[in-house]
Amino acid sequence: MIRSIGSLRTLLAGAVLTALAAGSLVTTAAAAPSSGITGVRATDQAIQVQGTAEPGTEVSVYALGPEQDESAWSGSTPVATVRSDATGAFDATVSREGDNGRLYYDKYVAVADGALVGTEHQVDDLQITPANAYPHPASPTKKGLQVQMTADAEDLGVGHAAINVPFNTLMQVSDAGAGKSIPFVSQGRTFYFDATEVGGLDRQIKPLSDNRSVVNLILLLYRDDRPNSSWSVLKHPDADLRGGPVFAFNTKTAEGIAYYTAAVEFLAQRYTRADQRFGRATGFIVGNEVDAPWIWQNMGEKPIDEFLRYYERALRLTFLATRAAYSEARTYVSLTHSWAKPVGDNPNQYYPAKDVVDKLNALTKTHGDYPWNVAYHPYPDNLPDPRFWRDGNTTDDPDTTPKITLRNIELLPQYLARPEQTYEGEQRRVILSEQGCNTPAATPEAERDQAACYALAYYKVAFLPGIDSFILHRHVDHRQEGGLRLGLWWWDDTVDAPAAPKTRKLVYDVFRDIDTRKSLETTQFALDVIGIDDWSELVPNWDPSKLAVREPPTTVGASRTAMPRQARTLMDFADGVQGWRVSDGTDRVTATGGVLRTDFTWEPGYAAQLAQLWRGTDVVLPAPVDTGGAQGLSLKVRVPANAAAGTRFVKLKAYGTDGRVFEGATRLGDGGDWQQASIDLSGWTGKLSRIKVWVRGSTQATWSGHFDLDDIQLAGVLAGAERTGNVAISADAPEGIGAGKPVRVSVRNDDLRPVSDPLEVKACDGVTLDPAKFPSTGTAPGTTATFDATVARSAPADPYHPSLCFRLAGFDYRVAVTVPPKPVPVAKPVFDFDDGTVQGWQAGPGMASVSAVSGIANGPGIPQAGRYLLDGASTVSSSLQPKTMFVDPSQPLDLSAAKRVVVWVNSYGGAPNATGYEVTLTLRSGTSEQKITQAYKPDQWNEVSLDVTNWAGRSAIDHVEVTMHAVGGDFPSWGAHFQVDSLGWFDTV
Questions:
Q1: Which residue stretches, if any, does this entry annotate as coiled coil (predicted)?
Q2: 922-956 as b/e, with b when 16 or more CB fall inside 10 Å?
């Protein structure tokens, strides 16, 4: 049985409602009525409604749909009629037989003598038998991530995850047919869910929960004009298409509520199953940043009380639907960091997050309280600047601080712990479900700022009671995130996807190690970045002995040359898949002819589309296996050759019943035939409970294909491993690859045996080294040897991307050499605004004003360079009308040495109906003019370059202007901001 979530109240006639220990309706925000319904209990058989009225009064109880107002009782039929006793108490029971769950979601009103008694009340005491009942999953770490790549999340040790669930793609309005739709019955009616979308959600959730991550689903709705999308039904009828992209759910109509309830029931019933068939998700976040609804919960312009009337319906429906499926499901409201002051000025578009909390608390306590919780987003005050320890707009007063950011995050649990804010005397739970640290530039310094931001933020939250998790946003930088780069990975500009991972940032290592024994070692650099000597200066309750809450996997030697002897076969797939299943980045597992095949199919936007990312299959063994002192875990693997995928690798992972994990990876040989792969288990203790196999390539190419497995064995002996072929070679040329320049070569041994052969340098890419051979390394497994050399000959195809070739123990290696990046030419400045003035620039046609500012509200948030930029506010006018900023220098500019003139531009405040934006740079000298017009992208800096090589007027430029406008559909009342920075010139084209 679900524990009571608010005991039924017994009242004396005329008495003030007494606050019972199980939960009270009395708060400082909302006094409870002295009569009316005081509690609604749901059991499997009935709904019980209790309350008070005048003694001896006949009381009729009406059940109204969640969308109906209290007045709708008039003209309808009561579900029960009772008479209050001598004390005024009444108790009505309504059978649930055949109600298909409708009464469970209904609101109840009491009517006596033709008038309402009190106010509406909904179920606040659950005594039902849920479909699933087990303890809420727990993680030893608060570390979480909005996960894009599940295999990488496992490597990172993610303990909490948040997954977006767009209802517009999840739910259909009609049956698309077998294999395309999943039918689902809710309240006696059949609804349909997109089978492909659901399968993709399974592939995200299950690998995470299989690794014991606590998974939360973020319930969202985007515009979707496809004929079978549910968007048209689920969108709130009052939503304004001129507002933001995330829409409020339709809780205004019965049809909208039916669809929404069905969708939540579907998710809860699928992802809270005890058997975890599809994966496990136990947290449900309703919408996104609902205190900024104009952008992130679009319901049109509404006063906060009207907005919350509809939003709270969705919140309560989510709670009721998920608790019917699982006894410990958690429901959350999503909030920005704008605490006592809203993010925007229009009070019908933006609300203080504190007001949302206060008014939700009052609303639910008045109409039947339940344990809704808080999913908070404490980004830094200025999102582009990760140095939150310098945040403005924050104080230490939870009643008045404009923002609660990572700097003063302790105020949030303090405020929610106040008695009037609690539920049944307990603080409502808090997760930090979305916040991140920007990388403001592609520089080592910017990477250090981002990583220091994460380190301090994690440490603060780790030692802060009252917060369950700290879920970082994002996994990979996203090109369409307003110029912000919040990821652990840099995005790849060469891949046609907005968040394709390329290389890891410094913050990746900090994130991975921060909850392990390596925590302080990995974050040591951040003390200098922040300007402190010890973490205790900024982290209350600091206790370094409690940092290591997670044991990372043990990396062991791996080999593709060792052969198992005295082996015990665990699985040979003669009778099927034997429990093996899809895992990270794969979509099907089958067995034919004694071979297990795992398929992975490239899909646009799919998390594991790139060859360099791990994808795989795993099995939970039917019963834990005693390894009996086996020396290794071995199997046969076959990965078809694919030139686009590059070098192929396989990783084996062994999981113990004690929580230990051994893993090892090895490079596969050329060709697509069967190869042996083994990892060292000589240090293993305990029993083996699970096995996982991953494969990957080495390139950024999209890769569809399959791999095969056979003969999973525990090897008593791994024989023939003397030939070491599993090494990683790297080369660093800190002064470039020119002849006579130094090079350091590193050899890391990931094999089972020491490296005993010499390392030979083979000529390739026009580069050779001196010496051309390094002696026997004697490198032990798991260690690295380094060698210093000099470039003997250098004629690479690309000096900024050179390669070296080596031969070791009969295996050939081609290695990309790390060299200093190609120097970026710097323009000679003309206007940089870094003195904090507009430097003579003026507002031209379509612009209301110009000013020099140090930051802006949207991406990229900070100047293109230096400390200030020029920001212009446009007049409210047609989006197609040009908006111009210009300068007439007091003395003509002499740029006679210039070959080209450049300026960086940006804008924010997107124009509805626009298909793009154009900018024009114009230079004039008397009556002579040069100009260039080009498209640009808002929310990021765009370089505009004008070739002036053959223009005589460049020696006396007396007018410079920059003009922008939207293209596509017209929006007649558009107000935007347009920015200019770093106008300068180059003496080369």
A1: none
A2: bbbbeeeebeeeeebebbbbbebbbebeebebbeb
- Pick the closest to residue 693 from 640, 622, 648, 635 (CA basis): 635
Residue 771: count of CB within 10 angstroms of its CB: 14
Residue with tokens 């780790």: 462
Tell me the C-alpha distance between 271 and 264, whole Å.
11
SS3 893: strand
Residues 6+ apart with CB under 8 A from 638: 672, 673, 674, 675, 707, 708, 709, 710
Q: What are phi and psi of 536, to 5 degrees?
A: -65, -20
CA quadruple 478, 479, 482, 486: dihedral positive or negative?
positive
Q: What is the DSSP secondary structure assignment for residue 450, as one 8-state letter? A: H
* Cβ–Cβ under 8 Å, residues 690 and 655: yes
**C-alpha span between 422 and 372 (Å, rounded):** 10
Band (pLDDT 50/70/90 cuts) for residue 608 is low
Written as six digits, the tokens of 658 are: 């004690």
CA distance 211 to 160: 10
With CA atoms as reference, report the closest residue to 710 among 546, 863, 588, 595: 595
Give the closest residue to 616 by CA, choosing from 653, 641, 579, 644: 653
How crowded is residue 528: how many other Cβ atoms within 10 Å of its Cβ? 11
**pLDDT on residue 722:** 64
The CATH number of 727-818 is: 2.60.40.10
Kindly report the CATH number that applies to the domain delimited by 828-986. 2.60.120.260
**Sheet arrangement for strand 883-887:** 842-843, 883-887, 959-968, 914-925, 928-936
Q: Please report the sign of the dihedral spanned by the C-alpha atoms of residue 421, residue 427, residue 433, residue 435.
A: positive
Structure tokens at 399: 């009643």
CA–CA separation, 25 and 8 (whole Å): 11
- Overall pTM > 0.70: yes
Assign domain 147-435 one CATH number from 3.20.20, 3.30.1340, 3.30.70, 2.60.40. 3.20.20
pLDDT for residue 11: 26
Give the β-pairing of 869-874 and 883-887. unpaired
Question: How many beta carbons lie within 10 A of that of residue 106, not counting itself?
Answer: 21
* Token pair of 245 as six digits: 């992209």
Q: How far apart are CA 672 and CA 518, in angstroms?
A: 39
- The whole-angstrom separation of Cα 612 and Cα 646 is 9
Q: Cβ(336)–Cβ(383) under 8 Å? A: no
Across 723-731, average pLDDT = 86
* CATH code for the domain defined by 554-719: 2.60.120.260
Using one digit for the tens of pLDDT, what is the confidence trace for 17-70? 222 222 333 333 344 446 899 999 999 999 999 999 999 999 999 999 999 999
Query: Quick one: pLDDT at residue 31?
Result: 41
Same fold? 727-818, 828-986: no
**Beta carbons within 8 Å of 567's beta carbon, 6+ residues apart:** 634, 713, 714, 715, 716
Distance set, CA 310 to CA 246, 248, 314, 358 (Å): 16, 9, 7, 16
Collapse the DSSP code of 591 into the 3-class scheme (helix H, G, I; strand E, B; otherwise coil) and give the result: strand
Q: How far apart are the first and last CA of the chain?
A: 75
Q: Report the alpha-carbon distance of residue 62 to residue 75 in Å, rounded.
A: 11
Dihedral angle computed from the Cα positions of residues 615, 621, 627 and 633, in that order, rounded to the nearest 10 degrees: -20
β-strands 773-774, 767-770: how paired? unpaired
Cα 875 to Cα 883: distance, rounded to the nearest angstrom: 8
Is domain 36-127 classified as CATH 2.60.40.10? yes
Domain boundaries along the sequence of the chain:
36-127, 147-435, 444-552, 554-719, 727-818, 828-986
| pLDDT attached to residue 858 | 72
CA gap 503, 490 in Å, rounded: 6
pLDDT of residue 405: 98
Contact 736, 819 (CB under 8 A): yes
